[in-house]
Amino acid sequence: MAAQELAAHEKQPVEGQEKTRAGRYFRPDVDIYETDDGLHLRADMPGVKDQDVEVTLENGVLTIEGKVWVDAYKGLSPLYTEYNVGNYFRQFELNEALDESKISAKMKDGVLELELPKAEAAKPRRIEVKIG
Amino acid sequence: MALLRFGSDIGPAGVLLSLQEQLERFLRNPNFSLGLSAYGGFPPINVFSDNQGVLVIAEAPGLDAKSTNLSAQGRTLTISGERKSDEPKGDSGYHRRERSVGKFSRSIQLPEGLDLSKAEAKYEAGLLMVRVPKAEEHKPRQISIQTGGR
């Protein structure tokens, strides 16, 4: 098969820290990339509706929490399952100087899109070197 | 057959716990025949039943619904498409790259007695949900009782 074939990837349960809400939590898969303007984060949280995500930044720790849409499974009897459901939780320590007032978050098709702009002072600046 | 309980008596935390237990019990249920395709592809799927028929739910976040294909042949349902990454523009570097991208295709064999020509699908919150109703002749039927005439 093609090299680009998507492989099965089981959701990873959150380990360690215990949450106040009962039940198992999953650790969303993330992509984080940096540009001159800031950090861009994408987190897979299938089964989380747009309004059920909470993102907080406190003391340099970014927390992502998503509540799973349980009602999607209401009144159904399982016949065969490959995945389990649960809320999502993940934290990151941020070392970059960010402009907290400009952080924006959006949910799209079960993916959290988080934009974390850098603080003005932390942006790279090109300094011209004069010749002669 | 176990029905997912959603009584007001157990509260939201209880609902999630009971759902997790139920899903765990049917994990890779060996009594359910998937057909030719084995466990282990993207997207992971759960198969449920209710009195209307069968509901297949696939966890597939970030798909473009327009370029995702669903097809049916006989009792086999096939989901295929491609998950793309939104490539960063300009000078950039990945700090983490855990989300997999690429093409996928999965087929599953559904139980008998369904009408795949009447299947309906929707995509919401990263879940692809395919509802397949029971075939007409397998639907429960009300039989009226004639009372003896005078």
CATH class of one domain in chain A: Mainly Beta
Strand percent estimate of chain A: 35-45%
Helix content percent band of chain B:
10-25%
Strand order of the largest sheet of chain A: 1-2-8-6-5
Gross geometry of chain A: elongated
Q: Radius of gyration of chain A, rounded?
A: 19 Å
The CATH architecture term of one domain in chain B is Sandwich
Number of helices of chain A: 0
- Strand arrangement across the biggest beta sheet of chain B: 1-2-8-7
Largest interface: A-B, 54 and 68 residues
Say how many strands of chain A there are: 10
Describe this structure in words.
The complex is a heterodimer of chains A (132) and B (150). Helices cover 0% and strands 45% of the residues of chain A. Chain A has 132 residues and is mainly beta. Chain A has a domain of 87 residues: Sandwich (Immunoglobulin-like), CATH 2.60.40.790. A five-stranded mixed sheet of chain A has the order 1-2-8-6-5, with no helix packed on it. The model of chain A has no long low-confidence stretch (mean pLDDT 86). With 150 residues, chain B is mainly β. Chain B has a domain of 92 residues: Immunoglobulin-like (Sandwich). Helices cover 10% and strands 34% of the residues of chain B. At the A-B interface, strand 3, strand 4, strand 5 and strand 7 of A face helix 1, strand 1, strand 2, strand 5 and strand 6 of B.
